[in-house]
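[Discussion] Sanity-checking designs against the backbone

I'm trying to build intuition for which residues belong where. Below is a structure token string of 72 positions. I'd appreciate it if someone posts a full sequence so I can compare it with mine line by line.
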């Protein structure tokens, strides 16, 4: 998938645990832990809005586009 989440590096950069992330945002624990552990897990638009509103960040700090390897 060409888009992946950057939550793990976002949290590391702010010295936040997944638990604190979940507590700050109020998102479901299962969603918060998936975002923190699996870069391939993509959140809903609503979850993205909550994260960006909570931390006052742009979407580009949470998601990134990654070039896919071309199959031969």
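Best answer:
Here's mine. Compare freely.
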């Amino acid at each position: 998938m060409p888009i992946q989440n950057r939550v793990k590096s976002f949290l590391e950069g702010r010295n936040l645990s997944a638990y604190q992330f979940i507590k700050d945002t109020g998102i479901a624990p299962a969603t918060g832990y998936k975002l923190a552990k699996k870069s391939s897990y993509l959140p809903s638009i609503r979850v993205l809005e909550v994260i960006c509103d909570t931390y006052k960040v742009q979407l580009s700090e949470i998601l990134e586009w990654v070039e896919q390897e071309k199959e031969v």
